[in-house]
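Re: the 175-residue chain
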Amino acid sequence: MAGSDRRYVHDCVLRWSDLDAYGHVNNARFLTLYEEARVAMLFAGGRAAGLDSFAAGMVIRRHEVDYLRPVDYPMSWPDPDRAPTVRIELWVEDLRAARLTIGYELFAPAPPTGAAGAAGSAGSAGSADPGLVLAGRARSVLVPYDLVRQAPRRLSAEERDFLSRYVVEPVRVDG
């Protein structure tokens, strides 16, 4: 699932419960969507590569989120048999012995031409899909954790090998 630039790509289905009173995806739900993509990469992707140790313990040390544009739940979605989705591309920005930093970009369906806020994408090195616009960037610092001992642990050689396939240069998150 990694793209040519070593990103893991995950499409997340938007849920009605993701919305706030304005019909936008709630700011806190961005973290839920990033989590869904991160779990897919580490747990499902790791298992597919023969590695299940991430599920044994990984905790978040820090989140940093930039909201670049609202993500609307399209009330007139053209396909009634399929819910709208956002695309999240994620990668490893920093890989250390006992922590890693994951970077994310969240892409949403472009607003219809002429809609308020339709002009100007935030720009990105990510998604090549012209129907998507960059709506958010984030990064998370994760620490491998031994749930039995209740203590941080080091990444195993196998975990580092798996994660190294997604290492890319960091994208500036400060705008």
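Residues 117-124 have pLDDT under 50 and may be disordered.
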